[in-house]
Design goal:
The complex is a heterodimer of chains A (about 500) and B (about 130). Chain A is about 20% helix and about 30% strand. Chain A is an alpha+beta fold. Chain A folds into 3 domains: about 250 residues, no CATH class; about 80 residues, no CATH class; about 110 residues, Roll (CBS-domain), CATH 3.10.580.10. In chain A, the strands form 7 sheets. In chain A, strands 3, 4, 7, 10, 15, 16, 17, 18 and 19 form a 9-stranded antiparallel β-sheet that branches. In chain A, strands 22-21-11-14-24-23 form a 6-stranded mixed β-sheet. In chain A, strands 6-5-8-9 form a 4-stranded antiparallel β-sheet. The longest helix of chain A has 19 residues. Chain A is globular and about 95 Å long. The two termini of chain B are about 30 Å apart. Chain B has 2 domains: about 70 residues, 2-Layer Sandwich (Alpha-Beta Plaits), CATH 3.30.70; about 55 residues, Alpha-Beta Plaits (2-Layer Sandwich). The longest helix of chain B is centred in the N-terminal third of the chain and has 12 residues. In chain B, the strands form 3 sheets. Chain B has a 4-stranded antiparallel β-sheet, with helices on one face. A two-stranded antiparallel sheet of chain B has the order 5-8. Helices cover about 15% and strands about 30% of the residues of chain B. In chain B, strand 6 and strand 7 form a beta hairpin. The relative contact order of chain B is 0.20. Chain B is of the alpha+beta class and about 130 residues long. The chains are: A alpha+beta (about 500), B alpha+beta (about 130).
């Protein structure tokens, strides 16, 4: 038995619509079956509350006297984007303050705005005949603005991956702090509460769908950027009136050594128009699968370790190659649930009606990687022959090599050409000064290395991070196959 | 394995003999363990050790005997007004001192905290601070 949007809305207006959350729907359908659910349940509410970097807000300040046309402007010292008309701007959540980055950013500005705190606006202009003011430094609150429109090009990922780290150092990523040697795991997404996972073919979600956004009412503008329906990584482009929103559901965030972002609360109502939608909204955490991805490999195609269900992810511990690894979410399931319940209350009270989308989201668009016109360079393209010495040779030999081969780095190997360490010209100077005679007294054994197939930029970042100027290139058996130094990178 | 947090206070080790005395004291219990974290702090050297369950007591005793502080309790405080219950800290906590309540909000069980401080720079809200 099919229902229409009008029938559902009439029930909402009369205050007798039956609304339950997507989590409750799992149990309901399990107990009563989809047929009864389709008849009895009118709306299923979803919710998610996670860090969503592709978020920001358009603000309009009104005109100053004399008028100004911004060239650059800052909100609480966070650079806002200006490339529109005189006093419009876009503040993006990942933009950090100029002076103390990694503490405060665009997401925090938006949180402070909706909390109705005072925001400092500084701006400058090259001045024109119609906009003569050169500089402005003023304070405002959200109520002083004409419009404050949250406008997020990519929110509410259908599902997301689970991140782990196989490398030997702690990584600070947009997936949080990842301990070395698979020390922990992080995932994101609300599983069975996730909006797009409850309508995976986008039958009810599309342009104009009215939603819960940041504690206020928002709308779906269409597919989000990087929308990837075939890969089940659909996304939403959202907007809403920031003035209605609350800082409980828009929270600035900082991931150390990564940057700033913002937690966004999104809740989408799914009308139960038919039995098929009843079944789809009953999707459980065990049925939503994602992949465990190794962020220890800094490439676009990071290794996929295995498939995993949200049920396993929520259990708090996952199995990686036989090792038990602690696992937790980056998005808040507590708040996701709260959002689904809040939206449910709005609908039950008759304050929130559902509408059919003007157009549903595309189901066949393709998600492409970046076209890079310059060929990616690898270590093997730029490496040179390493100057080596055996571990048992005399320091004098090493010193001679440095002079004869005109190099600063001597790689120390076993007789089988396996890497043992590195000695620099400075180490030799030190040996002379301190009257040391054997390599083992001056060798650096813990050497940061690279491999033939590592992109040059990854090798360069290693040197920068460890403040070193050369990396031995090794193969899988730890044989020395070359060296790359900062000179090759210049 | 169980994780213990040992702090070697500043000034405890003055020369190499102090080191060997402490290390021999531990070695005589015939136990192997992993050092998960080694860091220097204004208070001294901080070690996070992964020790077999049955050896915890002996190791703790020999460390304490040498004036090494073991499992300083509750070294972090969580500001609940700033915390948004995301859970980014939970996977980092080796003792489950940070955990989810039944309603999936974040909970801190101070009595389980061994002060390893691994969680501090995992919080996207700076809600976790070291207590002084």
């Amino acid at each position: 038995m099919a229902k229409t949007y009008k029938e559902i809305n009439d029930k909402i207006k009369n205050g007798n619509a039956v609304v339950i959350t997507a989590e409750e729907m799992v149990k309901y359908v399990e107990e009563n079956g989809p047929k009864v659910a389709a008849k009895e349940i009118d709306v299923v509410t979803t919710g998610t509350f996670g860090p969503m970097c592709s978020s920001g807000a358009f603000l309009n300040f009104g005109h100053s006297d004399p008028p100004i046309k911004f060239e650059h402007l800052w909100l609480n010292d966070v650079h806002a984007y200006h490339g529109n008309a005189a006093v419009d701007c876009y503040i993006g959540v990942t933009r950090m303050v100029d002076i103390r980055p990694f503490e405060y950013g665009g997401g925090h500005v938006i949180e402070d705005l909706v909390a109705r705190k005072k925001i400092r606006l500084k701006g400058n202009s090259y001045t024109t005949d119609c906009y003569p003011l050169a500089e402005i430094d003023t304070e405002f609150t959200i109520d002083d603005l004409n419009q404050a429109i949250l406008c997020n090009p990519r929110n509410a990922y259908q599902r997301y991956v689970c991140a782990v780290n196989s490398s030997d150092r702690t990584l600070y990523t947009y997936m949080g702090k990842l301990l070395p040697n698979f020390g922990n795991a992080h995932f994101a997404g609300a599983g069975a509460l996730s909006p797009l996972s409850n309508d995976p073919n986008y039958e009810t979600i599309g342009i104009g769908t009215r939603i819960f956004l940041g504690g206020g009412i928002g709308y779906v503008l269409g597919e989000g950027t990087q929308h990837n329906p075939k890969g089940r990584f659909g996304t939403l482009f959202l907007k809403g009136d920031l003035k209605q929103m609350t800082s409980e559901y828009l929270r600035g965030a900082t991931y150390p050594e990564y940057g700033t972002s913002m937690f966004v609360g999104v809740g989408v109502p799914i009308p139960i128009l038919n039995e098929d939608l009843a079944l789809k909204t009953a999707v459980s955490n065990s049925e939503i699968l994602t992949d465990i991805i190794d962020y220890g490999i800094p490439r676009r195609n990071r290794p996929n370790i295995r498939q995993i269900s949200y049920e396993e992810l929520f259990s708090g511990e996952i199995d990686i190659n036989g090792k038990k690894v602690k696992c937790s979410s980056l998005s808040s399931q507590y708040h996701a649930r709260k959002i689904a319940n809040e939206l449910k209350e709005w609908i039950e009270k008759g304050d929130f009606l559902l509408n059919p989308p003007a157009e549903t989201l595309p189901t066949d668009s393709i998600y492409k990687p970046m076209r890079q016109s310059l060929e990616l360079k690898f270590v093997k393209d730029l490496k040179r022959k390493a100057v080596t010495c055996y571990e048992d040779c005399e320091i004098k030999i090493v010193a001679e090599r440095i002079i004869n081969k005109n190099t600063n780095h001597i790689i120390i190997t076993t007789h089988e050409n396996k890497l043992r360490g590195i000695v620099t010209s400075f180490d030799i100077t030190k040996a002379v000064a301190q009257d040391k005679h054997e390599i083992k007294e001056i060798i650096t054994k813990k050497v940061i290395t690279t491999t033939d197939n590592e992109p040059i930029d990854v090798a360069a970042r290693k040197m920068k991070q460890h403040e070193i100027s050369a990396l031995p290139v090794i193969d899988e058996q730890n044989h020395v196959v070359g060296i790359i130094t900062s000179e090759e990178l210049m | 394995m169980t994780i213990i947090n040992a702090t070697v206070p500043l000034g405890l080790i003055k020369n190499i003999d102090d080191y060997s005395r402490i290390i021999n004291e531990i070695l005589k219990h015939n136990v192997s363990f992993n050092i998960l974290k080694f860091s220097t702090t204004p208070e001294g050297i901080n070690l996070l050790l992964d020790v077999p369950e049955e050896k915890i007591k002996t190791i703790t005793e020999s460390l304490t005997k040498n004036n090494i502080l073991v499992n300083k309790k509750g070294r972090v405080v969580i500001d609940e007004d700033i915390c948004i219950d995301c859970g980014a800290c939970i996977s980092l906590c080796p003792t489950d001192a940070l955990n989810f309540k039944d309603d999936l909000s974040v909970n801190f069980s101070e009595e389980k905290c061994i002060g390893c401080l691994l969680c501090i720079d995992s919080c996207p809200r700076f809600a976790i601070q070291e207590s002084r």
